[in-house]
Amino acid sequence: MDFRFTEEEEAFRKEVREFLDRELPPDWPGIDPDQYHEDAFDHIHEVSREMQKKLAAKGWLGLTWPKRYGGQEAPLYKQMILEEEITYRGAPGYDAYQFIGGCGDIILEFGTEEQKQKYLPPMTRGEVKWATAMSEPNAGSDLASLQLRADLQGDYFILNGQKTWQSAAHRADFAPVYCRTDPEAYKHRGISVIIVDLKSPGITMRPLEMMTGLKAFCEVFYDNVKVPRENLLGELNGGWAIVMAALGHERTYGLQLILNIKRDLDLLVKYCKETTVNGEPLAKDPLIRNRLADMAIQVDVARTLGYKVNWQVLTGQSPVVTANQLKILGGEVTQRVARLGMQILGLYGQLGPVGGNWRQMDETKDKWARLGGRMKHLYLSTVCNTIAGGTTEVARNGLATMGLQLPREPKAKK
Ligand SMILES: Cc1cc2nc3c(=O)[nH]c(=O)nc-3n(C[C@H](O)[C@H](O)[C@H](O)COP(=O)(O)OP(=O)(O)OC[C@H]3O[C@@H](n4cnc5c(N)ncnc54)[C@H](O)[C@@H]3O)c2cc1C
C-alpha cells in the first residue's frame, strides 16, 4: 500500500497553495471575518463570488467533468487535493459539497445532453450559484416523506409546498428541487427532481438565523410555481435514484470538515507553544499535550478515511461504509477540537471582537479575545456538522446495517 502522492499531484498541491497565498487577503482567517455582522452574509456572498470567478479562471470548478461541458477531465485525486487545500484555508467560492457534488455531478449523471450543455458550462465559469432543495419541515432524515407537490399540467410542472434549511438559497440562481409527483405511489417511488430557477414567480424565501448569528440558510415557499417540463432531471418518479446519487457525490464532506478543523488545531498548537501561564508555556502542561496529541490522531485517522473513500471510488468499490465512517468521525472530531479549544482558552475563549466586527479588531479593546474569538465561533458553528447532509445517528444506523450486517431498525410506531 502506497500512501504517497505522485510528483504531479504534489506539484498541483503546490500550485493550489500558491494560488491561495496570492488571492486570499494576507490576514484571511479562514472563517468569515464579518460573521457577527447583520449583513454578514451579503459580504461573504460577494467575497465568495469573486473567488469563484478566480477559481473558474484556473479551470478548477468542475475539474473532473468532461471538457465539452467546461471541465478539465482531471483525475479524482486532483479534485481531492484542490478541496483539501481550499478547505484547510477556509477559502470561499468553491462549494464542493453542494455546488459541485450535490448539483453539478447529478446533472452530469442524470441530465439530458441539452441540460448538461445549458447548466454545466456556466457552473465551471463561476457565473452561477446553486442550492440544494431536499429537506422539508417533516422530511429530513426520512427524506422519502417529502410533500412538496409538482403536478404536471401540459408542458409545465406546477410546484406547491415548502422546503427548509436551504443553504444559501436566497443567494442562489438554481436548485434541483426534490418533489412529489405521484402521491399514490409508495413514497420512495413518487419522487422526481426538477431544476428550478429560484427567481421564478411564486417563490418566496425567509432566511433562518444560525446560532453563530449568520443567516446562512432559509425556508423556501412555492406557491403555484410554473416550471417547464423539460426541467425534469432524470425520469419522472425516478427521483430516489438521484437522492442516493447526490448523497453519494457528497461522500467526502467529512474530509472537508477535517481539513478545515486541522487548521484550527494547528493554530491551537501554535497558541499553546506561544502562550505562557504562571511562567510556564501551555505547551509544557502534560494534560494539554495529551489532549492535543489525541486530537491530532483523530484528525489524521479521519483524513486517512477520506483518502480511502477516494481510493474506493477510483478502484470501482462501494465507498458507502467508509463514507459513513468518515461522516461520523469528521463531524464529531470538529466538535471535539472546538471543545478542547474552549477548554484551553478558558473564559477568554468565549470572547469575540467588541462590536462583533472581525475585520476591525481593536488591539486595545479586543486583546482578551484570544485567537480572535475563533474558538467561540467554532464551538457554535461545528454543532451543525453532525446534522448537515444527514445526521450522525442515521449514519450510524446505516453502518450497523451495511457494515455490520445487523438487521434493519424497527419502524417507528405512529
Ligand atoms: C448547516 C446545515 C445546512 C443544511 N443545508 C441543507 C440544504 O442546503 N438543503 C437541504 O435540503 N437540507 C439542508 N440541511 C438539512 C439537513 O439535511 C437535515 O437537517 C438533516 O437531514 C436532518 O433532518 P432534520 O433536521 O429534519 O432532523 P430529523 O430527521 O427530524 O431528526 C431529528 C433527530 O432525530 C434523529 N433521528 C431521526 N431518525 C433517526 C433514526 N432512524 N435513527 C436514529 N436517530 C434518528 C436525528 O439523528 C436527529 O437527531 C442542512 C442542515 C444543516 C444543519
What do you see in this structure?
- The radius of gyration is 22 Å and the shape is globular.
- The chain has three domains: 7-94, Butyryl-Coa Dehydrogenase, subunit A, domain 1; 143-242, Butyryl-CoA Dehydrogenase, subunit A, domain 2, CATH 2.40.110.10; 251-403, Butyryl-CoA Dehydrogenase, subunit A, domain 3 (Up-down Bundle), CATH 1.20.140.
- It is 44% helix and 13% strand.
- With 414 residues, the chain is α+β, with helices and mostly antiparallel strands.
- A hairpin with an 8-residue loop joins strand 5 and strand 6.
- The chain has a four-stranded antiparallel beta sheet, with no helix packed on it. It has a three-stranded antiparallel beta sheet with strand order 3-4-7.
- Flavin-adenine dinucleotide binds next to strand 2 and helix 11.
- Residues 131-135, 140-141, 165-167, 217, 384, 387-391, 393-394, 397 line the site of flavin-adenine dinucleotide.
